[in-house]
Give the backbone structure.
Amino acid sequence: MTIKPLIILPDPLLRQVSTPIERVDAELLTLVDDMLETMYDAPGIGLAAVQIGTPRRLLVVDVAREGEDKSPQVFINPVILTSSEERSVYEEGCLSIPEYYAEVERPATVTIQHIGRDGKEHIVEADGLLATCLQHEIDHLNGVLFIDHISRLKREMVIKKFTKAAGKPKAV
Ligand SMILES: [Zn+2]
């Protein structure tokens, strides 16, 4: 397993739509292991493959609390089947936007269809922190960031700050 460098805002790769995964093979499982290693090292509770420079539809999450056993979950080609009307608000952060946090409102419960690391199709119903985390990560697969869910003014401030820090001209 290898800890990979994280892709940081405003890297244009974060805006790319990830491509579906064709098969679960040894190469893919190595990528999964690298993602888990990178997520735990950061530390974070979720990571999409594009965040380590591989725009494929794959994400890993672990929402176990501190002191609890690790509980890694792998979602390949995840699709949100249903979203609840009920909403919940969590303060979100992102490994690609370090040290910035903001409250985001999302559906409280979602049903997600995906392929597991066993190569089989699964459907899970997620609520609480897991629901928010999965929606955040699935957004990454579509080139969407959590700052897209906050006010335009706040978003522009964050992008400006990170663009300045990266020493690059602002992308248009
Ligand atoms: Zn993120």
